[in-house]
Amino acid sequence: CTTCFDALWFCYSPVHQLQQYYRLGSLDNCSGKWNALVDCLKLKTKGSREVH
After folding, report:
1. What is the pLDDT at residue 40?
2. Per the CB 3.0–4.6 Å rule, which of 17, 26, 31, 33 could disulfide with 8?
3. What is the pLDDT of residue 14?
4. Structural domain count of the chain
5. If we measure between CA atoms, which residue out of 26, 51, 27 comes closest to residue 40?
6. Residue 24 domain flag
7. Is residue 33 within 8 Å of residue 11, measured between CB atoms?
8. What distance lies between CA 51 and its chain's CA centroid?
9. Contact at 8 Å (CB) between 8 and 37?
């Protein structure tokens, strides 16, 4: 889940937000990154029988 967390952290960085605002005219709400992190954490906390 480290890569998902890193992607979320970068998404909230001023550099990324300014790039998004410049390119698209709006800030990134990072919802896709949040969803990826939540999914990863859910998988990590499930038992091995629940994953299959």
Report:
1. 94
2. 33
3. 97
4. 1
5. 51
6. yes
7. yes
8. 21
9. yes
pLDDT of residue 45: 85
Q: Which two three-digit tokens encode residue 15?
A: 């550099």
- The model carries a pTM of 0.76
Question: Which residue type sits at 30?
Answer: C
Angle subtended at Cα 25 by Cα 38 and Cα 5, rounded to the nearest 5 degrees: 20
DSSP assignment of 1-52, as one string? -HHHHHHHHHHTSHHHHHHHHHHHSS----HHHHHHHHHHHHHHHS-HHHH-
* pLDDT on residue 50: 66
Phi and psi torsions of 10, nearest 5°: -65, -35
Q: Is residue 20 in some structural domain?
A: yes
Assigned domain for 52 exists: no
